[in-house]
Amino acid sequence: MASSPPLSELQGWLRKVWTAPDGIDEALKSEEGKRAGLWIVDAPPLPARERLAVYADAYFLRLLESLGGDFPAVKRALGEEGFRRLVADYLRENPSDSPNVSDLGSRLPAFARSHALAKRFPYLPDLCRLEWEVLSALYTDRLPSLDPAVFAKLSAADWEKAKLVFDPTLRLFEVSWPVDRLWAQRAKPAKAARCVWRTTRPSWLAVYRDDEWVKVETLEERAFATLKRLMNGGGLSEACSASGAETDEIQAWFSAWARDGLVKGLRLQE
Q1: CA nearest to 221, candidates 197, 247, 198, 245
Q2: Which of 32, 47, 156, 180 is the most buried (most CB within 10 A)?
C-alpha cells in the first residue's frame, strides 16, 4: 500500500470532492476525487461513494438552508423545488468562495436575470435584489441619531451650500415589479394568496435599518428622485428646486426622512 498522504493534502482532496458544483459522481472522476477515493473505506455497510456523498449532500443542504434564510420571499415565491433548482444552478456557476456564508448570495440578483425561472416568475430578479439589499442593510452599522439643532442653526446662506448626511444602511433602487408586497408576505404559509401581476408596475423603494430591524418603504417617484439626488451629493436648495414639488410636500418628505432615521446630519460645502 502506498504511504498515506499528509493530512492537509487529504483534506484538500476531500474539500474538492464535497464542494464540487456538478455533484459527487463528477467529483469522483477528477484527479482529487480519484486520490481521495483511495483512502475511503469501500465496504459494508456503505460503499466509498455513499460515504463521500453523505458529506457532499450535507454541504449543499447547508448552503441551500443559508440562502433560504437570506432569501425567504424568493423561496416562498418559487416553492421548495423551484428554489432548490435555482440554488443548485447558482452554485454551479458561483461556488462559495468566502469564509462568511452571508456573502454567498451576493451574485444571485444578477444570476436570476438570465435564469429560466425568470420567464415564469418575471419579478424574480427584482425580488432577489430587494432581499439582498435587506440583508446588506442588516449587516451595515448605523450612525448616531440626528440632532435637530443643526437645522435650527442654518442661515439662508448655509441653506444654499448644505448637504445632508444619510444613514449608511439606506439603499434606494427602482424595481419593475412591486416586490415589496411579496417581501411583506415572506413569513406567511406558502398556500396563502400570492401577488401575481400581468404587467410591470414600477416601484421606488427605500431600504434601511432602524432600532429594531430592516424596513422597506415605497416612495412616491418625486420623493424618490429628490432623495436619490441628495444621496448622490446634491445640495438641499438645488434638490428641492428640481423636485417640482410644493413646499408643504417637501417639508413632509423631510419630516418623514428625519423621523425614520434616514437623515443623520448635514455638512456645509466649502
Answers
A1: 245
A2: 180
Start-to-end CA distance of the chain, whole Å, equals 77
Dist. CA 72–CA 210, nearest whole Å: 20
Q: What is the pLDDT of residues 135-161, one digit of tens each?
A: 999 999 999 988 877 777 777 777 777
Q: Which helix (H) or strand (E) holds 112?
A: helix 108-113
The full set of domains in the chain, from first to last, is 7-119 (no CATH), 138-268 (3.90.930)
* Phi, psi angles (nearest 5°) of residue 209: -110, 135
Distance CA 50, CA 42 (A): 9
Q: For 174-192, what is the mean pLDDT?
A: 89
Please state, in angstroms and rounded to a whole number, the distance separating the CA atoms of residues 87 and 81: 10
Query: Which residue in 260, 262, 265 sits closest to 148, CA to CA?
Result: 265
In total, the chain counts a number of residues equal to 270
Global model pTM greater than 0.90? no
Exposure class string for 228-245: b at 16+ Cβ within 10 A, else e: bbbbeebbbeebbeebeb
Nearest to 143 by CA among 64, 209, 213, 83: 209
CA-to-CA dists, residue 197 to 14, 121, 130, 191, angstroms: 46, 10, 17, 18
Residue type for 35, please?
A: R
- Which residues on neighbouring strands pair with residue 218, listed in sequence order? 205
C-alpha cell at 31: 484527479
pLDDT tens per residue across span 83-110: 999 999 999 899 888 888 899 999 999 9
CA gap 256, 177 in Å, rounded: 24
